[in-house]
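Write out the 3D structure for:
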Amino acid sequence: MEKTNDKKTLRKIIKWPALLIIDRYIIRKFLSTFFFSIALIMAIAVVFDFSEKIDDFLESNAPLNKVIFEYYLNFIPYFASLFSHLFTFISVIYFTSRMAYNTEFIAILSNGVSFNRILYPYFISAFIITAFSFALNNFIIPHASAKKLAFEEQYYHKSPKVYNERNIHKQINPGVFIYLENFNTYNNSGRQFSMEKFENGELVSKLLSREVRWDSASHKWKIRDYMIRNYQGENQTIITGKSMDTTLNITPDEFRRRDNAVEAMNLPELNRFIKRQRMQGASNLDELLIEKHKRFSFPFSTFILTLIGVSVSSRKVKGGIGMQIGIGLLISFSYILFLQFSSQFAISGAFSPFVAAWIPNVLFAIIAIFLYRMAPK
């Protein structure tokens, strides 16, 4: 009895609107159209991808079960997330314009249900899709991408990733900096290696070596033909040798990491990777920060695109729903295009990564509010 009273009191405080028959109808229409559209485009994407790569699969003797379960089963979540925003918008436009064409909106509004109240089931559906998209981007896709990338390394890519950058500078620990003239990913060796240690902003030790090589058996670095210069005030001590094993806070995997490796990192892993890259002074830090902020801004855009879709398609127009679907596609592709432009501006340094990831949402939120005010009430 006490629990029942508590629930009633909570409902009075929060004042959640009860779900009406029309609410359940709209939610069912919204979600069924969305997931059917996603399933359809996934089937088309798989067919096109398979027809493009079948020769590579046959040439590399990739087993059929691995092609299905390790590649395509993990291929689907990525493209589901990639197209989720487009098909959220198209789903809203499609079934809402059909409701408007069949004068269902006129019947709902004429019975005293406000336009604001009609938005309630739309935003419930948008919240479900947002939660689905957020879980995909931050937890499911990274795990799936790791398996897909491992499959590509074994059966699809013809040669391992080669690290071609020269004059490599990295901070591997606070106050510890390394330099390499180049690094060879085939034999895990670097030429003209040096390491400097600083304490309180002053250089205390510097190591120079002709070559550094990774020992996969001991998981240590072997330094050859080295000289260590220790600084103690005005005094210096020099130590030389032919070979020395040491542990450095870096592995060869960091040199052969593919550009799309961040796809295989969930949100906690991405945060740790960004922290490490910031410490090392990586040049691609803005790209990583954009990737992180996109994982939040992309799901949130579902609410904005839903409001735009309802506002555009809730009015009955002559000639059917073709014009409304066309407008929906134009706005969807405009959003995606604008997001790509803002990302490039952030990489070039014109915008901060946070602004680049969120400015499309801000701009299209303004458009959504304008269209909402013009929608039939």
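The chain has nine helices and six strands.
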